[in-house]
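--- STAGE predict ---
source: upstream dedup step, 1 unique chain passed
mode: sequence only
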Amino acid sequence: MITEVQSTDFYKLLGVEPNANQKEIDRAYQKLIGEFDSSEGKRNSPDQPTLKEQIEAAQEAYDTLSNKEKREAYDAVAQVKKRPEPSVPVKPGPLQFMGRKDSSKNPKHQNVYQDFFGFSEKPFDLTPDPKYLYLSPKHKEVLAHLVYGLQENNGFLKIIGEVGTGKTMICRSFLRELRTDFNIAYIFNPAINELELLQTINSELGLPGKSKSKKKLIDLLNAFLLEERAKGHRVVVIIDEAQDLEPKVMEQLRLLSNLETDTEKLIQIVLIGQPELEKVLAKDGLRQLRQRITIQWELLPLNLEETRGYIQHRLNVALGKGKVRFSRPAVETVFRYSRGIPRMINVICDRTLLIAYTEGTKKIIPQIVKTAIKDIGNLAPLESWTDKLWKLVIPSAIAAGIGFFALNFFALPEFDNKPQGKDIAALIKEDPIDLSSPGELVNYSAASVTVAPSSPVNVPEVVQQPAVVEAAPKPIPSNGMLSISDSEKLVTYLSSLTLMESKLEAIKWIFEAWNIAPETLQDKEDLDILIEDNQLLQYEMNGTMKRLQSLNYPALLEIALPNAQGTKYLALSSINGDTGIFGSVDKIEMPLSIINSIWTRKAIVLWKDFENLPESFDLGFKGKEAVWLQKNLRLLGYFQGREAPLYGPKTIRAVRRLQRNNNIKDDGKFQIDSKMLVYNLLQIYQTPELVTR
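--- STAGE serialize ---
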């Protein structure tokens, strides 16, 4: 409830009409914040509010007009003539701080709970302040891709993310990461036409931008780009909220990217926008622009642990470490209702601290967070696993009950306890069991059907038919695999195959592990074609079973049969403890110890180089592949520090740790066995596993 009319007209402050929609309010707010950024904190007079006070006023206006209930209350109260201040002092309480105080009485605006908690400033402000940037793994990847893409002159770059995920914060932060030899044109208002785009870019770069001739503007820009390139400088155009660009403006950006020399681009363009940007770029008329985007990344919401780190990080920056504590259940509540979106985390936490202040507590528990969420309104939580379970179980139980009732009522016959005029022997004679049909469940042996002559038991006629006993199926193991218990049986099994036959039969199981179904595989030529068509590579190695388990790929084992019976191949598909699943003509289960005496320690592993990496990485290697390696080694917990397109000492140390932990020669060189290992350890590449991790 708003108890007094604010001294500032929120609509006038943001520059929008009273009937403005949410999109117009968002644009106006972003434009206003951009103007504050360009003012660099200058004040025309001592009486003018400080930059921080102006930003806080704009933020309060935006928060009020963006919330339906707050906006309706504000509009209602704004129609009433402001009453004079009461002469009787008002006891401090929650309602006292719901409205803004008169600026003449309190020229320096201060957050109401700042002194209570001992913060140096408001920790959960909505204004994008780079010092509050929380570098979660998601943010680090985006920042690394942006910096690398610009340093490598990669043309178009694209970053997308949901509203409030921190795109603008990332943008401002990576601008600080760039070297001084970059000229930046930052466009925060995309609601412009082609001419206004060129005028804005030129103005941002310090060039004349008032001309209404697109040709003159482009000529001025091209001359400037050539001069900057001669000086070793680079020019970057950053478009924020790029999903609002008109298709014609997009096409103008593509034409600008044609400004180039014989060897390199003169201008780089970064598009930052919401997921709707994907739909805009998917239009057929923008396919040329879409093809020029060389680096693209999506900024996803934070997970629970990242949300906990984000809250603590902002408290620490505001010097609130140890002064206020969010309990783990409270953080979980914030996460559920914010859905991991940083802006909504700020909104919830800011209101939570205000309520905690009014209650005089510095420990944040779920009840306080829920009160804040109720106060904010219109926040739907993420579904927990119990919610999903109930949604699944209750309809399933109802459907099962209805189905059982219908089956019982309409389909099932009624049975009486008494036979209806016929005994059981008569019923059997009318409908005897056909034992000759396939799918017989019981396999009668000769012993099970032999009856002594003196036995008084009447043997059924069907048991006395010899044809039935002879046609009974041979027992099949329940798991469908052939079980071999000693090496002699394995030798006998493999000796009937030629070398090529054993290889072709064995490699079918390796293809099955890669989800490849060979239609024809009759000779070596068919095998080579199938491997090439599926972009598989062969890695031949000498090693132990332990090393095979470290690489964790199914493998072809070379087997030397005794007594000059020749060499064969056997596929090792999976390992479970001391038992292995092998493949030849049949699928075989047997102890690993059986093959120890006949395995030559040679093996062939099929693998895939998903990223087409260089043959070998060594000290001094330069290229974007080094950044890829560092990023993924960080995900695996081996690399620390900042990524760079250089294979240096930090990278070598990380690779050695990876190799030592996985029984690979720790020479620090990123070669085939290390590549195979990294692809297998990462979750994003679909590789088969010899041992389930």
